[in-house]
Please model this.
Amino acid sequence: MRRIFPLVIAFVVILGCTSISQQKSQPAKTDNAEFHNLQVLPVNISHDDLIATMRGFARALGTRCDHCHAAGPPAADGHEKLDFASDAKPEKTTARTMIRMVRTINGDYIGKIDPTKQVQVTCGTCHRGHTVPEPYNPPPPPGQGGGGEHPPTPQP
Model:
């Protein structure tokens, strides 16, 4: 019995080490395997965070999901289904570009102006509920009228 016990312990240790090395050699699994083709959002984003992010985009642009996402095959119940992984619509490529732009503005510019990052640029900063941002034409300063007058240039 004394000879078998060390062999059993050695076998269990070797088996455990083999199992651990096999787990390490496997690629890391994402938090949610149902998302495909995420290029600018984290691949391990939670379902709730992804839905909240997409709803934020939709509200900022005054759109619905089908603005960026292509139609997929109809569902069994006859309802339209979207192919969220598809890159068929150019609006999706534009959205990715805009997401990168907003990140750059917030990280490289706003972050240098306001290190506390209490001010952030978002999609809504420019879009304000429209797919194409409307030009901002500020009203003339009080007392300046609307006749094309310019405010005085400050003197140093």
